[in-house]
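Quick start: read one record
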Amino acid sequence: MTRVHTAVKSAFVSRSFLLFLLTGGFAAAVNWSSRILYNIWMPYSAAIVVAYITGMITAFVLAKLFVFTNSKQSTGKSVFFFTLVNVVAVLQTWAVSIGLAYHLLPRFGISWHAQDIAHAIGVVVPVFTSYVGHKRWSFKH
């Protein structure tokens, strides 16, 4: 096993990552379902961003309480880095959601709930990059 393989395995096969997946999964469900609600009052593109912020607040609270409990960083500093990591993640989510909903899925003839499917995939994409970012910067210990 190479050093890189060992490092990746230890990072993603851990109690911390499992808790991150569980709390992040809940926050993603909040994100995805709130987008449907927000979409009643605003366009799809804007609803994706506002829903992401709703999910992000949920994710921060859950991550601080249950995942990165050994963090020695101040809450203010954690919020700052958490926001930076999530700016990258929301761009990933938005690009994937828009790309799939308006370009890729229609090419394959998928129109039934295309926006919902696209957004669900878009929410999942940044899971790994977010975990690494939060572990290294948001909740450094």
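Residues 75-107 form the longest helix (33 residues).
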